[in-house]
Design goal:
The structure is a single chain. The chain is of the alpha+beta class. It has 3 domains: 17-215, Jelly Rolls (Sandwich), CATH 2.60.120; 223-273; 279-344, Arc Repressor Mutant, subunit A. Helices cover 42% and strands 23% of the residues. The protein contains 12 helices and 13 strands. The protein has helices at residues 137-144, 148-159, 175-188, 195-215, 223-242, 250-256, 261-272, 276-294, 299-305, 311-322, 326-333, 339-344; strands at residues 17-20, 36-42, 45-53, 57-66, 70-76, 80-90, 93-95, 99-101, 107-113, 116-122, 127-135, 164-165, 171-172. Strand 2 (36-42) and strand 3 form a beta hairpin.
Length: 345
């Protein structure tokens, strides 16, 4: 694991530069308490690296502020397993080893590199903030026991000594990853926060990042758009519950959110795993089961109250979702055996 910044630049030919171990006076960004600090100052601007090293991971908050074009060499002494988040970026930079960085805010990539000794070029005006998490190999080996399909490809590259980017380009984090990352950053901001808790969050972030490739979700969608779609699905469920007696159709609900029907149906399915009508029907069944279990109302009356046209339709729906008859649900809830009655039928 690297306990020094990923980038170690030799002096740029066009500017004098030097390393220091304090943040520059002009620095106005986030400060991590208890972090080791490395700063490269020069006429080109400054790079700051704030790192906290734990048993199995090290986490770096990096700021790149470039006043004039800068060219140097990036050095990597040890193999690196890294998950890199981009919190913000203005313009880009080129790095021969891993390609041109074009990432936007809240995008990330997972990389493994064995050795880096490459020309790196920062364009004038570049302003980039990243958080890089470096992992011990033991962490991946341990997780591979439980998630071999996710960690296997990364471990194969590491054992073969073959550099790789897990994604071909930086992708957007999912809303859950963003929430998790914010929890991690909050923990990092406390110098005396739980080290084991921070490591667990860091490893969980890696797991969630690897899952995105398998599920192919969110990869090209900004996380704020995903959050919007999630809110749409949540509000749609509320409308369905309010319309328990009458399903109004996909078009009606799509118009409520000023969305096309196809877009709305896709959005709802992505966030619930069901269609709109299936969710509406499930709501009615949940209400019916509650009445079966907690009241003595006749089954015929419950069927009508929950909007079913007949007891037959009601029982058909109950069988589909619970694999038993309505009267069986009631008897089980009362702690009685329904087998004897079934035998008598």
């Amino acid at each position: 694991m690297n306990d020094k910044p990923l980038f170690d630049f030799s002096n740029d030919k066009n500017h004098d530069s030097c390393w220091s171990f304090t943040l520059p006076e002009a620095y106005t960004g986030i400060r991590l308490p208890g972090a080791g600090i490395y700063t490269l100052n020069g006429g080109f601007g400054y790079f700051t690296f704030q790192g906290r090293v734990f048993k199995n991971v090290s986490i770096w908050l990096n700021n790149y502020l470039v006043f004039s074009r800068m060219k140097g060499r990036a050095l990597l002494d040890l193999p690196m397993i890294e998950m890199s988040f981009v919190l913000g970026t203005k313009t880009d930079f080129e790095m021969n080893s891993l390609g041109k960085m074009m990432a936007r805010g809240w995008q990330f990539n997972i990389v493994y590199d064995t050795h880096m000794d490459a020309e790196t070029q920062f364009e004038k005006g570049a302003k980039i903030v990243t958080v890089d998490i470096h992992y011990q190999l033991d962490v991946l080996e341990g997780m591979n026991e439980y998630y071999p399909d996710l960690f296997g490809p990364l471990l194969d590259a590491i054992h073969a000594g073959r550099p790789m980017k897990y994604f071909h380009k930086y992708i957007y984090a999912s809303p859950d990853m963003v929430k998790m990352f914010k929890r991690l950053f909050h923990a990092l901001s406390n110098e005396y926060g739980s080290a084991s808790g921070i490591e667990v969050l860091a490893v969980t972030l890696l797991l969630e990042g690897l899952k995105l490739k398998r599920h192919n979700k969110y990869m090209n969608t900004r996380f704020d758009y995903v959050l919007h779609d999630k809110r749409v699905a949540t509000e749609a469920i509320k409308l369905l519950k309010a319309d328990a007696m009458d399903f109004r159709g996909n078009q009606f609900y799509a118009e409520k959110f000023a969305m096309g029907q196809t877009r709305f149906k896709t959005c709802f399915f992505d966030h619930t795993g069901t269609t709109l009508k299936a969710n509406w029907l499930e709501n009615r069944i949940v209400e019916a089961v509650d009445l079966l279990v907690n009241t003595n109302e006749r089954i015929t009356q419950i069927a009508l109250e929950c909007g079913f046209a007949s007891v037959f339709k009601f029982n058909e729906a109950i069988r589909k979702y619970l694999h038993m008859e309505a009267w069986q649900v009631r008897r089980l809830a009362q702690g009685e055996s329904w087998i004897a009655k079934k035998d008598r039928c």
